[in-house]
Fold this protein.
Amino acid sequence: ESFSLRSVKLRHSRGPIFTVPFGVLGAVQNMSRDWVIEKLSLTISYDSDLEKARKLIKKIGLELAEDPELKAITIEPLKMQGVEEFGEYGVKLRLKLKTKPGQQAAVRRRALVMIKAAFDENGICFASKAVQVFSAAGSQPEAVINADAALHATTTPPKPVAA
């Protein structure tokens, strides 16, 4: 809002004005200027096709950049930067996009919806926690259990049965 020799007045996005003396003012970061880079992480299963995932993400990024609602706020389209790490349950991918300040959430939300639909259509699975059970006699897994379902099954009390 304004500044004087002793303080600066800052207005919050919801309306209130804060007076901050220069003596307590630390580093200042302007988040409303030029552009914002939004970074996203997705974890897909180890048996998913990484190259197919990269191509789908690139295609979605181009579609988002040409979308009439998002075109004006998108500076650089969504793209996959590469493999971030090999996680416990899957491959973690790193994605990024560049937008006008304060507009990144709208593009991110639309991108995630489109990625989910495209991955479902193309057989790319998001990673989920799984437990493999091996028998003492053989080296092949006897069962693979979804860890989330197993946790839910052990913590959900059984429903009463009417007699």
User: Anything to note?
Assistant: The CA atoms of residues 138 and 157 lie 34 Å apart. The chain has a mean pLDDT of 85. Helices lie at 50-66, 104-121, 147-155. The first helix runs from residue 50 to 66.
